[in-house]
From TrEMBL:
NCBIfam families: PRK01222.1-4, PRK01222.1-6. The gene is trpF. The keyword Amino-acid biosynthesis applies. Keywords: Amino-acid biosynthesis, Aromatic amino acid biosynthesis, Isomerase, Tryptophan biosynthesis. This is N-(5'-phosphoribosyl)anthranilate isomerase. Belongs to the TrpF family. One of its GO terms (biological process) is L-tryptophan biosynthetic process. It comes from the Bacteria. It catalyses: N-(5-phospho-beta-D-ribosyl)anthranilate = 1-(2-carboxyphenylamino)-1-deoxy-D-ribulose 5-phosphate. Signal peptide: none annotated. InterPro entries: Aldolase_TIM, PRAI_dom, RibuloseP-bd_barrel, TrpF_fam.
């Protein structure tokens, strides 16, 4: 068993006795989807209409997906409506900057994608996920399990000098099985590989950015729909 949450689906009668045969008990995994790097209200609406559970806004100035204008970020967050989580992505942020964002943009969750310690992640008293990059010599599970306050651990590809959003995959077989928190798989996911990724890793959720873009910072509606369909199948 992997990191996904197993849900039971019963036959039409609601009777769990018939374990075999059509309409009987089946096991299915629910894999949530976060689509990151949203830079416009139009893209936010596409993501929500496609059925993603979360959208991400990048507050990291060097990124091509950086949303500098906090009024735009606020509009994106409000476009998500009441049932889609809005995630703010930061990389080693200046506390003053993150506090300003928190005042002006209604975020549900913080995503720390740099070298933030557990203490740094927790100082804002907000729900957060911690992103870790799969650097070969790192004890990923040992590191991940230090973030006891995290809602989840996101694993991304490692490329020296780039904190994330590289569009690169990593060796899914290298993922340790003893990460305690829900696992969010990221790194180079796209419509063409997301089903294989889910079958291989059984993550709690997947996170995609570059794989559903027309160009850096601009999402592609058709790729988003294909991605969502391939997660469901
Ligand atoms: O999207 C970015 O530009 C970015 C910049 C800095 C850190 C993380 C970033 N994005 C996150 O990276 C992973 C993988 O992205 P991709 O699907 O490989 O493009 C994902 O969690 C993004 O949210």
């Amino acid at each position: 068993m992997g990191y996904g949450q197993v849900s039971l689906h019963y036959g039409k009668s609601g009777n769990i006795a018939p374990l075999l045969g059509e309409g009987g008990l089946t096991m299915a995994r629910t894999v949530r989807v976060k689509i990151c790097g949203i830079t416009s209200v139009a893209d936010a609406q596409v993501v929500c209409d496609a059925g993603a559970q979360a959208l991400g806004i990048v507050f990291y100035p060097p990124s091509p997906r950086y949303v500098a204008d906090l009024a735009v970020a606020r509009d994106i967050a409000q476009a998500a409506g009441p049932f889609v989580s809005v995630v703010g992505l930061f990389v080693n942020p200046d506390p003053k900057y993150i506090e300003q964002v928190l005042r002006e943009v209604p975020l549900n969750l913080l995503q720390f994608h740099g070298d933030e310690t557990p203490e740094t992640c927790e100082r804002y008293a907000r729900p957060y996920i911690k992103a870790l990059r799969m650097k070969p010599e790192t004890d990923i599970a040992g590191l991940a399990n230090q973030y006891v306050g995290a809602r989840g651990i996101l694993l991304d590809a490692y490329r020296k000098g780039v904190p994330g959003g590289t569009g690169e995959t990593f060796d899914w077989n290298a993922i340790p099985r003893d990460i305690v928190k829900p696992l969010i798989l990221a790194g180079g996911l796209a419509p063409a590989n997301v089903a294989d990724a889910i079958a291989s890793v059984a993550p709690w959720a997947v996170d995609v950015s570059g794989g559903v873009e027309a160009s850096p910072g601009k999402k592609d509606e058709s790729l988003i729909k294909q991605f969502m369909a391939n997660v469901a199948n």
